[in-house]
Amino acid sequence: MAAHSDSGRTTEQIVSQFLSKALHAILAARIPYIHGPTPPPSRHPRKRDRWFHLALGDPPPALEHPSGLIPNGVMEPLVVDILLSPRDDPTMPEAIVERWVAQCEAPAPWSPLHSPAETSSNSFLVKRTYKKSIILLRSIYSVLRLLPAQRVFKMLCASNQSYNHDLTYRVSSFAEPFSRKEEAEFQYHCFAPVETQSGQLAVSVQYRPSLSQFNLEISSLLPPMLITDYVGSPAADPMRAFPSSPSERAGTRSSTSFPLRGSQHGQPSTSAPASAPVFFNRPHSWTGGPSEVPSNRAQHPNHPPTGSYRKPAFNFDEFKFSPPFYMSPTPSPPKFSGSYMQSPLRSETAPVSIPQPGSSKVKVLRSPNLSDPTRNFLPPPSPRSARTTDPSSQDSDSRSFRRPDGLRTSDGYSNMYGTPKGLKDGRDDSGRFSLSGSPRFTFSRSSSRISVPDDLDDPDFSYPFAVDDVDSSDSQARSNDGKEVSDFGHASSSHKSQDAAVGVLVHMLRTAAPLRDSTYSSQSSKSELQEEGLGSTSSFFMSRKASDALEELQSYKSIKEMLLSQSKGKLH
Amino acid sequence: MNCEVCELKELVVEQFEIREVLRCILHTIIFHRALGLVRPRDINCELFELTYVQCGVPEVEKEIEEKITEFISKISKHPNRRSHQVCLSFYETKDKQPAWFSSKTERVYWERWFINLQITNQRVNMKPNQTKVGFDPGEKLSSLEEKKLHRTALEASIRENLFQIIKFVNEKMDHLPHIPPNAEGISYPYEITILSSSESSLDMLKRMLQTGHQTTLS
């Protein structure tokens, strides 16, 4: 059947573009984040948008070349299955919730379209075909919004929470027939066909009238798992090092509650189910971190092996895709997470610069437990820290290693990062839906504008006297004050250790940042310090009782006298 | 040219639901008849679990809002009348023989949509002497249940109306005029009129056939 041109458009072109645009409309209305986390910005309609006078925006990459979708020509049907896949249970089968079928059926032999007509009428037919195709496409667009799956789509897109199901799709050129039982569960809607010179362009949809059977519900934001290397708790081993190599992290990652439809065409993972995650730029990667920056994550074990993060290959043959992994709630960690994670390590390794021994000015403000000279000369703990630590097991490294509360836990990550809305806003303009693993998938993190405390951006940020550090050390110091003061009165350490301890104390007190905790008051402690003539940050002593302060004062006096006596002895 | 008429199924609505219902239906019809280049917008109904599509033309949105406001003010003046009708018409402007005291152009309607609404009173199911104080919780619960049932039924009816619109626009295409080249947004002129409840669509059609002229019914 010859295709006749009219203003540059042929029937075959119209049908081909129609199928492409219909697929675009279906996927845009059913697959969350088909363009990526950021919707493409609205712009002046391009030539592609002008087809059928319906501007849908940039199509996903797979649809940029419609010929790829219909390799066998316009006469092959286009079957789009919309599937609801359980996320947490890969053993549960996915279910087709909608099946769209669009095809150009060859005309019957007795149809007037079967025989070639005159050129003038061909032009008229093409125009009429095009006009009707416009209306048909509008109808498809409207029906997509009226079917039950639209509600699921809205839930998955709009919510910043993770649901226990995913919407995925499958495009093929044949429709696997439903069983009788399945057929009975579906309702059928058929659009009026559009006559073309190539046949009748017919579109129909089978859909489930109700999706309540799938129990779509919110899955937990934080999957239940044991974080063995959690460093935020004072009960954690402060000396535990972060895993530094990617292999270590990959070995401890888990798919958690986000098993992706990563089944990319005959490459099942041996260590992960077919629906294992395949995207490395998972926005909610607080659980496992992005695979392309594995060194940044050390907080979350129990992740699947690296194999589950393989980058899937795009294959038109199977036409089975899963959407980008952006449906889950928590966004990706910021790029500087590495620096953030590194800063406590840096402070851990060099929290305080030990001054040169022989420092004349001695500022002894703390309990003189000289077993750990650096630790014991830190300011007293903050009242909000109820944690107590074993002083003997801690040192300055662990103390300064602790991060502020807001950043300590994985919840802190989720608090730090933007919501899915922000995630959506961060979509790359060239949003992609292919799973080729190209760098463009990194946009979920790199392009997302997530608000994070400014201090974390600073690679040089170090907080040796961060509140928590102060808290932890203060808490232990407070708990040990009574005991240590009495012990110190009887201590007779060597000259060097005493000098070093004093020097450290002096330096720390001089360089200590003021505490930000508002519960501290400066009144009583200032008076004590002035008595001693030391003039230090007064807030360190606010929370302590007067008796404790008095005891400490006495201990300092004794230290002073001892030092003076020792120095006199040296001179003589 | 034939004038295709589509009479939509009557919707039973409460006063506060009128705007949302009319928006949904009018925008859906216009979206299927604005055959110029449009950038569609999805609108989620506030009162119903429905999403409809607007053609994204600001002038259309403005005109629809104005007409809905006009409709609401009219029905408020006639609280006893329950049935009301809104008519959305598409027409062509054609030149005619100039004559004394008549315009040179005439409107030839090729499609009309009749949206039928029955306005209910919110307290129609409550007892006359019921007040908030001393309200029986059981009756309040039943009232809430009735409202919920009403809302569900209305949502289903609206959905049915929308499918009716889609079915009609798909089946009836031959009467559509030629789309102007490079049309942006609205391709065919239209008008929204509010029919008085005393005049039905049939009466209006009769008048049209008799006069053969544009009839302004508002």
Automatic annotation (TrEMBL), chain A:
Descriptive protein name: Autophagy-related protein 13
Signal peptide: none
Basic and acidic residues: bias regions: 396-408, 422-431
Species for this entry: Rhynchospora pubera
Keyword terms: Autophagy
Comp. bias (Low complexity): 436-451, 521-536
Positions of the Autophagy-related protein 13 N-terminal domain: 93-210
Keyword Kinase: no
Bias (Polar residues): 244-273
GO cellular component terms, A-Z: Atg1/ULK1 kinase complex; cytosol; phagophore assembly site
TrEMBL record, chain B:
UniProt keyword Ubl conjugation, yes or no: no
Record's GO cellular component terms: Atg1/ULK1 kinase complex; phagophore assembly site
Record flagged with keyword Membrane: no
Keywords: Autophagy
InterPro entries xrefs: ATG101
Coiled coil regions in record: none
Gene Ontology terms: biological process: autophagosome assembly
Signal peptide annotation: none
GO MF annotations, alphabetized: protein kinase binding
Similarity comment text for this entry: Belongs to the ATG101 family.
PANTHER family referenced in this protein's UniProt entry, alphabetically: AUTOPHAGY-RELATED PROTEIN 101
Protein name per Swiss-Prot or TrEMBL: Autophagy-related protein 101
Organism: Rhynchospora pubera
